[in-house]
Amino acid sequence: MDFEGADEFSEKREHMVADLIANGYLRSERIIKVFLEVPRHAFVGEANERFGYADYPMPIPGGQTISAPHMVACMTELLEPKKTDKVLEIGAGSGYQAAILSRLVKKVYTVEIDEQLAAFARANLNRVGVKNVQVVAADGSQGYAKAKPYDKVIVTCATPEIFAPWLKQLKTGGLLIAPVGVGFYQELTRIRKKSKGLESQNFGGCVFVPLRR
Ligand code: SAH
After folding, report:
1. In terms of Cα–Cα distance, which of 87, 22, 70, 66 is closest to 156?
2. Is the pLDDT of residue 113 over 90?
3. What is the pTM assigned to this prediction?
């Protein structure tokens, strides 16, 4: 697949991006450019390709979901991605969020507990030619100590708490974003790790599939 150029879904992708901008989810020029480039239809499974640009979550293997585009947009903006960043993602799922980040940062490690999904994410990322994402099949509640420290951590499954390894593996000055909660709804939470303590900000309600162990 030609990752850079036009494809049969370019027009749908442009509409999706225009809506995300109009609704205030996409703001940064760099991030907008990447949303226009990354073919989301390549991450939803072949049978669902034509629904790849609708703004809702979609089923992927293992009873999981690819997050809705507006949620990926929102979390990507909140993560303030920099070219030099090394990012840890918990919950690779389809690999779409990782693919978006791959074009905005230096390197992404994405941990996925379901081996079948880890393979799905790898296949999707390969298909679009992403090279700087490593998919790790493991329980992400432990983070991924091997590649620490990270500039940013992004959790894309509903988590009951901010697990200690995530904060430990995060650089001072770094950002962590996670949907925190145990019920149907979670609070989208961003934490900045300061030299002395943590600064926490809440960005409202969201709905993610739960973290499993
Ligand atoms: N970021 C994904 C969407 C993730 S859906 C995308 O862009 O498509 C949430 C994912 O978290 C699911 O794939 C689920 O299997 C995974 N998950 C749940 N518990 C986990 C855990 N403890 N460690 C790693 N991944 C986990």
Report:
1. 66
2. yes
3. 0.97
